[in-house]
Amino acid sequence: MPRPLVFGNGIFHLCLDAGHRIRDLYFPQCGLPNHLSGHAIRWGFWCEENLSWVGDEGWEVRQRYDPSALCGLTHLESSELRIAVEVREAVHAAEPVFVRCLKILNRAGQEREVRLFQHNDLRIAGTEIGDTALFDPVSEALIHYKGAHWFLFGGRSSNGGLFEFATGIKDFGGFEGTWRDAEDGHLSGHPISQGSVDSTLSLAVRLGPNESAELELWIVAGTDLEDVRSRTASLTGASLLEVLAQARSASENLNLAAFAQIHALPQEWRLATLQSLQVLRTHLDAGGAVIAANDSDIMRTARAHYSYSWPRDGSLTVMALDALGWGDPSERWVRFLASVVQPDRPGLFQKYRPDGRWGASWHPWNETFPHGVPLQLDQTALALVSLCDRFERRAGDEREFEVFQTLAKPLAEFLCGFRSPKTGFPLPSYDLWEERLGVHAFTCATVFWALDRASAWALRLGDASSERWAAGASEIRAAVLQGMFDASGGCFLRRLDPDGKPDPTVDASALWLLLVGLVAPHHEFAHSTLQAIEERLWVRTEVGGLARYEDDYYFRVSHDLPGNPWVICTLWLARCHLLFDADDHLASAIDLMKWAQKVAAPTGVLPEQVHPYTGEPLSVSPLAWSHSEWISAALALNEKATFFEGAVETS
Question: Which stretches in the chain have pLDDT values below 70?
């Protein structure tokens, strides 16, 4: 199930599903560790001897964000219980605090008592072993803890603090959990449990006919008891509203800087771009890592997840944000890269944990790689491009020369040297899809881009390496134009396998040869490649969209289609159309961007891919890369829109 609402501030991150249940909870880093791993913190409402859990059958759930802000505005309604609930919620701008303000409306014609139950089903640090759940009489709240991970759950109504509570054993010895205790409208008050535990709290209000009341709930994280108690003590009624106001203010400050970069777009797409900016904020760890996705439901497929920092995704994300006017992420990204690049092996690993340690991998190790460690060269190349991009925007920065010498130059030297002296191609490595070994069109594009931009940076700094790196980029361009175009298919090859055998599979990633300028738009190969990719990878259903490559297996729905439509691929196609100064190309780009917004959730969240027949999200949602590609496409369109006044219409 996708995560239509995500909140985070770099140290505290929460993901909610379409049933408005918190399904992922990360602290103290974005993406590490997950203290829910798909289990839930959920609400139930009880009145007139009937308990119903939000998200179950019979509940209407309408989720959205406060426009262009990282504040949730959700409407919940149960016709069976005859109640409606308006929810405002946000994570504190800097502290590990999540606040939720609820307004409950009694739609019945008589006075009733309504009770809210919150069930907390944690797996602290990824496992239920050794957890403790307790009632803390000082904070008058429930606390779960294990080691340096502490979580406090509190709330209040007009009647005061918690109405009732319970802690207990779950999923062990025949015990299902304290949520069962709530079914009669009351909780046992059991004060402490250890092992595989959960807890439930309740608040109660009496409401007359069509009368409403406000409730407040909060989740506070910390490293010890005093940490969570002290943060909780500051949460007076006024400060909860202040947390919401600060969250909105933080969003507005970023939006002001971004607006100037997208001023020519229609309002609907400006808002979509600003919402992508806000969603990407929730993927940024305070230590600099950029997390691909925190939707843990992907673990159902392979007990693996996307809560890693791929240098590829991270580099493209910080560059998009920098172009939009927000430079802080790229500054932290420089520090993160500096912490993971190893002097004796400048080639970056496939992916990293938020703390900078190597992430899980499936690439075989062998002696053809330096030190036997497998390489995916596009990761290293795009990391170098991100460094070039940051300091091209900030020429003369006091750290520029140091970063160039200690980080960028070793990466450029490695990329320039890790090539065939005979052909000029990069040596075989794994592809951007992380599936096969060879010399790939996408890899060639990114290594060319990296060396070309590094050469320009070196020239500006007066470094003699500039000429050698420029020559390396030119040799890659010549090799691609001479040895990677498939004349019979009218398209660039996906790759040359490790033995040099051509792989003519049509792959959307070949579009990057155009996007980075290795192949100019006016070159004869450019238009035919664009046409071939669009013709052979377009998903010919009512949903539409562009597949990754022919016969894509990942989450395959039908063998009658090239694959499922991917958001990033469709937006690459849009960006390529924007390289051409022609009305028909502009119209195509606009149509493709309309498609991306059509498959977005009502909250603006973009998935990795969608079902080719229903348009429902597949794999993870949101995916940071999808949002960064939307921003890049929006920025490119904004430039064109100033020359094609009135041409950009979204409806």
Answer: 642-651
